[in-house]
Amino acid sequence: MANKWIGALSLLLCGQLMASELVIESWRIDDKALWEQKIIPAFEAAHPGIQVKFNGVQNVEYMPTLWASLKAGKAGDLITCRPFDDSLALFKAGHLVELSEMAGMENFPSFAQSPWQTDSGAQTFCVPMASVIHGFFYNKKIFSELGLTVPQTREAFFAALDKVKADGRYVPLAVSGSESWVASELGFQNIGPNYWKGEDGRLALIGGQERFNNPQYVKVFEELARWRDYLGEGGESRDYATTNELFTSGMAAFYAAGSWEIAPFTGKVDFGVMRPPVAKQGDGCFFTDHTDIGMGMNPASKNKEAAMTFLQWLTTPQFAELYTNSLPGFFSLSNHFFEATNPAAREMIEWRDQCDSTIRVATQILSRGTPKLGDELAEVSQQVLLGTVAPKAAADRLEQGLKGWYAPHQGNQGKGQECQGEASVPAVPVSGAIGTEPAAPVVPDGQAPSGASATQPPSVPVSGAVAPAPPAEVEEALASELEGAQP
Fold first, then answer.
1. DSSP state, 436?
2. pLDDT at 447
3. What is the pLDDT of residues 47-80, one digit of tens each?
4. Distance (Å, rounded) from C-alpha 96 to C-alpha 66?
5. Backbone torsion region of residue 305, taken as left when φ is above 0, otherwise alpha when ψ lies between -120 and 50, otherwise beta
6. pLDDT for the residue numbered 445
7. Contacts for 308-311: CB closer than 8 Å, 24+ residues apart
8. Is residue 366 helix, strand or coil?
């Protein structure tokens, strides 16, 4: 008789385990082994009743594939979230659960949550996971051979490039000339924050107090144009993969870098990291620390309680340290204190204590209309790098594009905003009236509170300015994106 009860109980437990299988949708296909060998086993060891599978899709195919899967009811339980509009569109369409009151969200500062919130900040729909940092890598062997020191100012940076060029054995600056996103993200949006003063300038662009054809933005293009002389033979046609091989083979002194390359480069070349140079010694420094990855829940999940447990685990110190140290160059956005073990990653994350950080300038609100600022910025940045468009003409084109659809750039510029360093953004609440707010959040009964607690205040200093309310044209643009984003 006892055996029958044991058998029935085993079947019941088996059914519960099967019901607690979660699938993660992600564009980070390169991280599949990391998730399967480190992150998922750590979670499953702490939660033996839940099994997790990682479904990776190629980066460029991720959003179309995800929209199709969600519409067909075939998407996984957990959705890896891109920042800002891609995920906001999913939330507005009812494809992400609201997580505003989820236990553990208090472990993330407001700047970390904002890429996965409605414009009003009232609703949060993804757990912040990681950011990536922009800067430069340098070859330590070449530096030793040529007697170079790490430059902190622009003058010193170009002097070092000149010295490498004069030596003739190495490419001074490894940058892909053939891929426009590189010129934008690793060029313009890498060195730019030191010109427009980080968040103050970015928010002033959104508010219309600053314009892309103001001197501080033209000067960024002027510096980018100077890079062309240091790309080496064939630099104009060199793709991103070849550029990476050039640096890791030891044949380039500097590399315009994203921290996501720390892990792939480690062990291939002895390199150090360098902040974007400032105008003169002692100037305040700014850098791009871009909120890149979050994770949310599919409302159609049949395992909501298990999915919520997983999301709450993402808010813990265990995950923050595990993720950051298993994937050097992707930095936890939580308040938890821990030490990064990779030397290059550790130095980059320390920039947060030395400088003010910002995010990519075209990411929030400004790419919702036509022409899309992100696309325009990539195109003109590449043209400036290759010498086919003058810096002032590039800046004028960006401003003209915004002026065509974005109301804050259609009137007169705010008084006193023509000069660099005078950004002053009024604290105007951000409107959340883009589309229709979704129904009440889907929260399972009896969700377990996270055992994690914040151990340190936010280490990333950001401006206290608040983004202005987007105009009706922006609301219409995102509404159009909601429909157009579907395959």
1. -
2. 33
3. 999 999 999 998 889 999 999 999 999 999 999 9
4. 12
5. alpha
6. 31
7. 308/102, 308/443, 308/444, 308/447, 309/47, 309/50, 309/447, 309/448, 310/22, 310/43, 310/47, 310/50, 310/52, 310/78, 311/78, 311/99, 311/102, 311/104, 311/127
8. coil
First to last CA, the chain: 57
**Confidence at residue 60, expressed as pLDDT on a 0 to 100 scale:** 83
- Tell me which long-range contacts 55-63 makes (C-beta under 8 A, separation of at least 24): 55/23, 55/24, 55/25, 55/26, 56/26, 56/27, 56/28, 56/29, 56/30, 56/31, 56/32, 57/25, 57/26, 57/27, 57/29, 58/27, 58/29, 59/27, 59/29, 62/26, 62/27, 63/485
What is the band of 480 on the pLDDT scale with cuts at 50, 70, 90? low
428 and 465 in contact (C-beta within 8 Å)? no
Predicted confidence at residue 111, as pLDDT, reads: 87
Type of residue numbered 289: D
What lies within 8 Å, CB to CB, of 134 at 6+ separation is 185, 186, 189, 190, 257, 258, 259, 276, 287, 288, 289, 290
Q: What is the mean pLDDT of residues 369-382?
A: 97
Residue 482 DSSP one-character state:
H
pLDDT at position 104, please?
98
Q: What span, in angstroms and rounded, lies between the C-alpha atoms of 299 and 443?
A: 9
pLDDT by residue (tens digit) across 191-211?
Answer: 999 999 999 999 999 999 999
Domain boundaries, the chain: 17-130+292-338+432-484
How confident is the model over 353-368, as pLDDT tens digits?
A: 999 999 999 999 999 9
Q: In this structure, what token pair is assigned to residue 424?
A: 């002053």
Cα-based torsion angle of the residue sequence 176, 355, 112, 91 in order, rounded to the nearest 10 degrees: -40
Residue 435 near residue 479 (C-beta atoms within 8 A): yes
Choose among 405, 406, 403, 423: nearest CA to 414. Answer: 423
What percent of the chain is modeled with pLDDT above 70? 81
Q: Distances from the Cα of 13 to the Cαs of 7, 307, 447, in angstroms?
A: 10, 18, 20
Q: Which two tokens stand for residue 352?
A: 């947060």
216 vs 427, higher pLDDT: 216
pLDDT tens, residue by residue, 284-326: 999 999 999 999 999 999 999 999 999 999 999 999 999 999 9
Tell which residue, 252, 62, 24, has the closest CA to residue 143. Answer: 252
What's the mean per-residue pLDDT of the chain?
86
Residues 330, 345: Cα–Cα separation, whole Å:
8
- The sign one gets for the Cα dihedral 53, 56, 62, 68 is negative
On whether the CB atoms of residues 129 and 295 are closer than 8 A, the answer is yes
> What topology is assigned to 17-130+292-338+432-484 in CATH?
D-Maltodextrin-Binding Protein; domain 2 (3.40.190)
Residue whose C-alpha is closest to residue 357's, from 423, 455, 284 = 284
Number of helices (H) and strands (E), helices first, in the chain? Answer: 21, 10
